[in-house]
Amino acid sequence: MSRLKISAISYLNTAPLMWDFEHAEAGAELVANYDISYTIPSACAEALRAGTADIGIIPAAAYATVPDLVIIPDVAIAARRAVRSILLVGKRSVDPLSKQTLSEGPVSKEPWSKEQWLKQVRTVALDTSSLTSVALAKILFAKWLGGERDYAAMAPDLDAMLGVCDAALLIGDPALQVDRTRYFTLDLAEEWVARTGKSFVFAFWAIRKQALAGRNGRAIAEVFKKSRDHGLSPKRLEAIAQEWAPRLGLTVEVIRVYLTHNIHYYLDPPCLEGLGLYYRLGAEVGALPPTPEFQFV
Fold this sequence. Notes:
Layout: E1 4-9, H1 19-22, H2 28-33, E2 34-39, H3 41-50, E3 55-59, E4 69-79, E5 86-91, H4 114-120, E6 123-127, H5 132-143, E7 150-154, H6 158-164, E8 167-171, H7 172-176, E9 183-187, H8 188-196, E10 200-208, H9 217-231, H10 234-248, H11 252-262, E11 264-267, H12 269-285
Parallel strand pairs: 1-2, 1-3, 6-7, 6-8
Antiparallel strand pairs: 3-10, 4-10, 4-11, 5-8, 5-9
Helix pairs in contact: 5-12, 10-11
């Protein structure tokens, strides 16, 4: 039987999930059974839609748009608090009229507060790498942050994005690399948890139903769970932190905390509850189509 084609994401937060697939210690069996390619989240979903991949770590939003998928249970990229890699970013500037009018005397040069900044945001550049975070931003604005804004899809180049829009949505490694002392930032996972009390799921493994024909789905799911478990062992997390810190220009400690504190790698009941709410609100505000019931391997 031919090897299953995996479409994976080349971000830091997927490194623990990919441990067995990327390290020889896992044995030749994975090499014989799986063929891996790397891309960005939105393209991963398109590979499943087109049938050029059999298994993908898809953005959660893609489950609403790509037909005939089943979910590998228990494995996810999720957050139960601030995630740090899904950010709405805006320039730090002064609002000369925020405190007084010109007729009242000298112009104030006090910086905006974050709340004042959000009120001034009218246009938002949306990272084309993402699907889930784009819908999340639209949900947050529509439900809690003052209503829908004008959105523009753009490549994840912060300077270019802020050159044409008031704020920019960045995801993944580019968001982690933002110097947050220079900008206003809103962590979208943190905002979601604060507003809903629910965990948030950004991505999970999904398989095309056609690819499971003649195969043991439970055994395949176990391969991905074991890879996650191996990657999350302290020794291997430290190896990941040491490898990725120079690659991203971040400290080992920042990487370590991100992988152990900010990212939650389990598609557990609280995450499924939050995911269900995300799908309902996404459909309610027009950010997502109606989503099918969860189907697992």
